Amino acid sequence: MPARIASSSFLGVPAQVARSRRIYTICSSSVPSRKVFHSRSSLLADFDDQHPLAPILRSNASWASSKQTSNPELLSSLASGQKPPYLWLGCCDSRVPESTLLNQDPGQVFTHRNIANIISHGDLSAQAAITYAVTALKVKHIVVCGHTTCGGIAAAMGPSRVGGVMDTWLAPLRELRSKYDSELTNLSSKERNELLGFLNVKRSVSVVRENPDVIAAEKGRGLTVSGCMFELGTGKVKLVDVGESGSEKRTRDAIFGT
Q: With the CA atoms of 71, 77, 83 and 89 taken in that order, what torsion angle do they form, in degrees rounded to the nearest 10?
């Protein structure tokens, strides 16, 4: 319902003056007086064996019960807050669940995942996660982790477009492919994909290191940034060489740290 001009007695301002000054108020008759209250029980839903989420909800109930027995302090401590030492920037591939493969309990690894673990300056989601993890959670270590047989890497190495927004998303990988074309050309398909995966981790680590909050935390409290590659065939996480020289670090700090 459109707003109506207040009566002449409202705040002592005559109606005609209110009109001339474009002072508008909403009359009480135009605002519904009904109030809605939600209780926790009214927002929860029951489920039965026919519900599509029944298998994983039953599995969750079993997990929660086992944790209450084996580590009763864990769940209560999680309810009081989090202080994870690690920020994991990885791929959203279902085969790379960070807490599982690192054998960590909930609360240890703050996570941001996307297709092919591509970290870009203009990705507000990734940059927000990095800033929050560094400035609010005070994580001690940032890990950028790729993995073998990555579908995003394979798509970027493919001969044709994927279609839709995926081509925009994979553009940084195709830029790497173009930059290192001479090194990639003579390799087998598997070797090309693995090399591009390593190069993508190194590129993403560089982007993370250029975040001003990361630079400040490196200087102020010894925050580290590392690159890793998860080998699906072996289950092992391997370190990627992402070292930088002293002069490279000084240049980075001078350009991005201000």
A: 60
